[in-house]
Amino acid sequence: MANELNSLFFFGRPLGPIYGFAMRIREKLYRHRIFKQYHPGVPVISVGNLMLGGTGKTPTVIHLARLLKENGYNPAVISRGYGGKSTDNINIVSDGKDILMDPVAAGDEPVLIAESLQDIPVLTGRKRIEPCLHAVEHLNVDILLLDDGFQHMSVVRDINVVLFDATVLAGNSRIFPGGPLREPVAALKRTSAFLLTGQNPENRERSTAFAQILQARFPDKPVFTASYSGLSLVDSGGVPMNPAAVGNAYVFCAIASPERVQKSVEILGIQISGMNNYKDHTSYTVSMIEALCQKAAQAGATCLITTAKDYVKVKNADFTLPVYVLKISQKPETAFNDFILQNIPGN
After folding, report:
1. Which of 26, 124, 193, 317 could form a disulfide with 91 if both were Cys (CB 3.0 to 4.6 A apart)?
2. Strands 122-124 and 91-94
3. 180 and 295 co-located in one domain
């Protein structure tokens, strides 16, 4: 996958300025109200990124939803529903009581968020404003979290958080298709704060230098960091497992940054006998599951390990080996939590 992206970026480099120009025009059309913007009538917090691929948005959204709930708010998460087959204007993945849609219809990330936040509504829709309004009008919601909302400027937001992965940072700093940037760097003027996710001893020096660059270019935008915490392994029933007792593992995932999964399994001290990386949001078929089990057996694995995002799509599948789920939670610094709570309108 990395080689494919590098080839795309190399050959797409001449087109980057054209795409970047189009994105700047789009931003100006929203800023000058030629493209209409809507406010749902309650505070809105957007979590997004400038980069293609994963930056830890889902664990950050889950963290913020819990933070808001603990501080007396009734939040709902509005997700893009990427990969889901439903084309309805409003999809209630969870009403805060029951999970009402599966990953095939809703997409893997909204279902994962719903399973992680069983007392918080999760909705998707083709136009973000429609599930936003439905949540406010029918689900007793008083604050909204937009998952992957930075480029979705049709919904007015009060806090705009932009994430960067502390290892990848800004990649080659070129605009798609010449690089991983969704928009020109100047678009970051829209942000309220930056959050560098997945900081660890190995990337701390580079990510700290990157934070200083962001602070110098955008001096009025605070830069916070988050580390992954609570790394653990559970079985299909959610029971914690001793990593030392699972034996050799065959790892599979369909996420934007599979190297994170590999690194996490290695940190747990588990021997990896093989690994399959699929395109982000891939839907698993029966034949794919059968092939996975066959490869795992041939590699001498005693179990399979996948991510929580992948497991929501395969939990009803028939495996010939035990399947364990990697659990990772995001822990931003306390100052980030304080910033969010203090900047909600009305506080």
Report:
1. 124
2. antiparallel
3. no
Instruction: Based on the fold, state whether residues 145 and 271 are members of the same structural domain.
Output: no
User: Do 168 and 292 share a structural domain?
Assistant: no
Could you list the residue range(s) of the whole structural domain that residue 130 is in? 2-229+331-342
Reply yes or no: is the peptide bond before residue 177 cis, omega within 30 of 0.
yes
CB of 305 closer than 8 Å to CB of 251:
yes
CA gap 330, 222 in Å, rounded: 19
- The Cα–Cα gap between 91 and 82 comes to 12
152: tokens are 């979705």
User: For residue 146, what are the β-bridge partners?
Assistant: 46, 78
pTM equals 0.87
Q: How many residues does the chain have?
A: 347
Report the number of distinct structural domains present in the chain.
2
Residues 80 and 200 in one domain: yes
- 179 and 316 assigned to the same domain: no
63 and 165: one domain?
yes
Angle (CA) 81-336-188 rounded to 5° is 60
Q: What is the pLDDT of residues 152-182, one digit of tens each?
A: 899 999 999 999 988 887 766 677 776 767 8
